[in-house]
Design a protein that fits this description.
two-stranded parallel ribbon, 13% strand, single chain, Nucleotidyltransferase, domain 5, 318 residues, alpha/beta, elongated, 36% helix
């Protein structure tokens, strides 16, 4: 507002610059100041190029890469441009958990001596994420349940464990990682009430829970990475079929060529392995769209459905 008034005093009333600035109350340096053109084009180009190639890096590491290129831009300037481009990443707080002192990994001497449990994550064809809660008996590597749903809180974990114990009995120990569902107070109270000892592995040491990690790899290669699923019922149906083969047909080197069910000495009658609240329900209209194998003179043909990472072999639940 003062600049137009200053200009009017000088043009219409013949005031000098010094007198006009005194009347308006504006310093002569501010009156003479002219905005310089934007000089951040080069900074923007370099930041966008680095962020596109390395999207997981935050400002600190991006700035180090810029300095390694010999560009001596001020860090405050680079940070301002980085924030304007919304490239700065939120810093995650450190998760505070109690100290863990795990025992050496042992399979146990009998059924129900120790179970292992863990979560897995994947996505449907429409992009919705779903989770699986896997439970394995360490003694004979038998898969006891795979619970599948979009959300699996601590209460759902407890119900799944109770459903397994209804026909198999409760374990003496339950080996877990430090996920939020496992460190919940509800699970600790359930374990105390049922006489189950919770054994937590050390953070960042997944192989301290090696039995379930090995099972997770087999399940991912046998189901999740092999098919594209359109709904949860398709995941549950194919998981149930795979679990039957895993427990009843597939032999394991750790069991000296036996399959898990052949080494189970429990007398309980086993129901079908659970794969979620709708296990056992068939979804009409499921079709399999296999990939065409590479021919002698042709290229590989892929199913027309949208495919994700890896090499999915079929589309389920169409």
């Amino acid at each position: 507002m003062k600049r137009p008034l200053l200009q009017m005093l000088r043009e219409k009333h013949g005031f000098s610059e010094r007198r006009a600035c005194e009347v308006v109350g504006l310093s002569r340096s501010v009156a003479r100041y002219e905005c310089r053109p934007d000089r951040d084009e080069e900074v923007i180009a370099v930041l966008l190029e680095l962020a596109e190639r390395l999207p997981e890096l935050g400002f600190d590491k991006l700035f180090l890469l810029i300095r390694r290129r010999g560009l001596n831009w001020n860090h405050k300037r680079v940070h301002r441009v980085c924030c304007e481009l919304r490239l700065n990443q939120r810093r995650r707080g450190k998760k505070r958990i109690p100290s863990r002192h795990p025992q050496p990994l042992a399979a146990g001497e009998r059924v129900n001596a120790c179970w292992s449990a863990d979560f897995m994550s994947d996505a449907l064809g429409d992009g919705r994420r779903f989770r699986t809660f896997n439970v394995v008996d360490d003694y004979n590597r038998e898969a006891l349940a795979i619970e599948i749903d979009l959300n699996l809180p601590a209460g759902r974990v407890i119900r799944t464990l109770d459903r397994i114990a209804a026909w198999r009995g409760y374990p003496e120990r339950l080996r877990l990682d430090n996920g939020p569902e496992f460190v919940a107070i509800a699970l600790a109270e359930w374990a105390e009430a049922k006489g189950v000892r919770l054994e937590f592995i050390q953070p960042g040491r997944p192989m301290q829970n090696g039995f379930i990690e090995r099972f997770n790899g087999s399940y991912r290669k046998g189901v999740l990475d092999l098919y594209m699923f359109r709904n949860l019922n398709g995941v549950r149906e194919h998981t149930e079929r795979w679990l039957h083969d895993y427990n009843e047909e597939i032999t394991h080197n750790a069991l000296v060529g036996l399959h898990p069910s052949s080494t189970d000495r429990s007398t309980a009658q086993k129901p079908p392995v659970m794969c979620g609240p709708d296990h056992g329900r068939s979804t009409p209209g499921h079709r399999v769209v296999p990939k065409q194998r590479r021919g002698e003179g042709g290229d590989r043909a892929v199913a027309t459905a949208p495919l994700r990472r890896g090499a999915p072999m079929a589309v389920w639940g169409a």
